[in-house]
């Protein structure tokens, strides 16, 4: 069988497996199809995701369910203002041995897992938030001068309450950029909320089951990177990301007065990966411009900041992204 035929077969099989994973997740996390799609896309792309929404929308339950379905051992950290970096990474303790000698012993923190849930990450101080930076980027931590690798795969799924709520600290730009996607979890519509009531207040609730294993997930992540991407999709990604940078030659005309800073190359890399992942979730062999359009906001919204003048005008980051999408992808589709 030719290599292309093997790849098509593998992508088709992965699509079927992902369909089973999505169905298992949605037995518990009811009605939020877009949120489930984006979280799975982040995991398939090998990245981390930030889930933003009001309390009580099921963000914690989603992460817990995802750990079960993807076959990953998980740990949960409840971020609070008094949380210290050692509470995340671990620490060395001095042991007295039987012969009277002393030696340091390292006690692993909850970061030594495959799926780490950072619950309400913006309630901890910036110092504690930054303890995750090295782990998220390099998949290792340095403690006591020693580099300690983390298990593979390693993913951080963080939940965040809106910044306007009392007792929260905004995440620094460097850490926001480590998240592949920012997934906004909104209130459900009436029909969805009705389904939630019926599914979660009876005698029995839907139970998730394992579909993947760690090795199977790593294989899926490798397969995603082998999927071909057409020239039109590559150019549309470049058009979109570069149009969002104030001061750049290719920036959209209104960006200079609207944005303070925009996305870097990591955003383009993220968009390239998650468009492939979205195609695989639909059982398709290659991404299209529709995938770019669907994943643009989750990739870009936390990598851009509005100017004071734009905020005063009532503009939003998502509105700016939609406007740029209309300009740049519209030109690509017309061509």
TrEMBL record:
Domain of life: Bacteria
A Pfam family recorded for this sequence: AAA_3
InterPro entries documented for this protein: AAA+_ATPase, ATPase_AAA-3, CbbQ/NirQ/NorQ/GpvN, ChlI/MoxR_AAA_lid, P-loop_NTPase
Entry annotated with the keyword Nuclease: no
MF GO annotations: ATP binding; ATP hydrolysis activity
Domain AAA+ ATPase: 45-189
Keywords linked to the UniProt accession: ATP-binding, Nucleotide-binding
Protein family membership: Belongs to the MoxR family.
Full protein name: MoxR-like ATPase
Natural source organism: Paracoccus alcaliphilus
């Amino acid at each position: 069988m030719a290599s292309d035929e093997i790849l098509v077969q593998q992508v088709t099989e992965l699509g079927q497996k992902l369909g089973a994973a999505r169905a298992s997740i949605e037995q518990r996390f009811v009605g939020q199809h877009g949120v489930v799609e984006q979280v799975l896309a982040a995991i398939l792309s090998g990245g981390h995701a930030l889930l933003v929404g009001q309390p009580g929308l099921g963000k914690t339950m989603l992460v817990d369910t995802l750990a079960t379905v993807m076959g990953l051992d998980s740990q949960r950290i409840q971020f609070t203002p008094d949380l210290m970096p050692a509470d995340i990474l671990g620490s060395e303790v001095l042991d007295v041995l039987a012969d009277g000698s002393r030696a340091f012993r390292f006690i692993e923190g909850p970061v030594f897992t495959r799926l780490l849930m950072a619950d309400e990450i913006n309630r901890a101080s910036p110092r504690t938030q930054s303890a995750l930076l090295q782990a998220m980027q390099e998949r290792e931590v340095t403690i006591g001068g020693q580099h300690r690798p983390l298990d593979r795969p390693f993913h951080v799924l963080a939940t965040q309450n809106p910044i306007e709520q009392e007792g929260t600290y905004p995440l620094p730009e460097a850490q926001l950029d480590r998240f592949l996607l920012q997934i906004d979890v909104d209130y459900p519509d009436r029909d969805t909320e009705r389904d939630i009531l019926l599914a979660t207040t009876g005698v029995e609730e839907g139970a998730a089951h394992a579909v993947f294993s760690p090795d199977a997930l790593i294989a899926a992540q490798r397969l995603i990177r082998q999927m071909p991407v057409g020239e039109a999709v590559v150019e549309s990604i470049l058009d979109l990301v570069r149009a969002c940078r104030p001061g750049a030659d290719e920036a959209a005309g209104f960006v200079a007065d609207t944005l303070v800073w925009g996305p870097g190359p990591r955003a383009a890399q993220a968009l390239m990966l998650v468009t492939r992942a979205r195609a695989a979730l639909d059982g398709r062999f290659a991404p299209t411009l529709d995938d770019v359009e669907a994943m643009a906001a989750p990739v870009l919204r936390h990598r851009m900041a509005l100017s004071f003048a734009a905020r005063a005008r009532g503009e939003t980051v998502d509105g700016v992204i939609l406007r740029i999408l209309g300009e740049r992808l519209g030109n690509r589709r017309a061509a």
